[in-house]
């Protein structure tokens, strides 16, 4: 390549960068021209829309995520007789629990890389529909191998949601708003865990033997079908990115972008590929600290995989056993939201984490 040609390419890159900056300036102009009172008024309406459509929808999806994943429905299914029906011993059951997390770990990081290049309003509901189908298919397996296969692929597609939802929330809410919304999102896991026991009790009481199927099969089929329906609704409700969401007007999109820029203290003008953020994350020592803490938490909370079985040892029948699994999750729901609300108010997350 000649020097002149290289100079032309550099010049083209600079022109392209300049065009992007000008386009960003044009998008932000409506927000920058507002008075403080006007900006606050539009921002309030914007947050109301986001709380109603984004925060509420990802919360509902997360409830269903926990209904469909290993810790809850398969734990309830064990009480309802899945191990006996599939002629599984304790080792095979534990393997069916663990194998979901193989797919889960493999897909979480690649999924968020994909998400940066796609429309969240399509990507997240589509993976949700996929795990709903897989959950329903679990209700028709006839041996341990079939259960292993469905659980592995269930983890593979479910992995996209939680990190993707946090990423999407952080693309819309400021730092002082994100803690409470994140806690609200995570409360979906507690409610999903609680409902799993309640739904399991209802199905065990009402559908055992219906159409020749055991109650545990109905548990997977019903919960999976509900998930697919909600996924189709989510396509119409979820936003994309602040500059591309269609159900916001031009002024609201400008305010959404500008308030995040002000919160960050700088304009994000980097035109780097996804690898830039990937490398920056792995260069931050705090990432490893939080990863270690989270690993410890997950090890400690692994008892949820066997919680209904543990409660069953108290001597209650199947329905009451499943009902008794709900209260601890309801308590933790309120504690988690209250803790993060306090962290946002006091702007001190570290103390609240400890």
TrEMBL record:
Protein's cellular compartments: Membrane
Main localization (coarse): membrane
Alphabetical UniProt keywords: Membrane, Transmembrane, Transmembrane helix, Transport
Domain Major facilitator superfamily (MFS) profile: 54-354
One of the Pfam families matching this protein, by short name: MFS_1
Record membrane topology: Multi-pass membrane protein
UniProt GO cellular component terms: membrane
GO molecular function, one term: transmembrane transporter activity
Transmembrane residue ranges: 50-67, 93-115, 122-142, 148-170, 182-203, 215-238, 287-307, 319-337
InterPro entries (UniProt xref): MFS, MFS_dom, MFS_trans_sf
Identification of the protein by name: Major facilitator superfamily (MFS) profile domain-containing protein
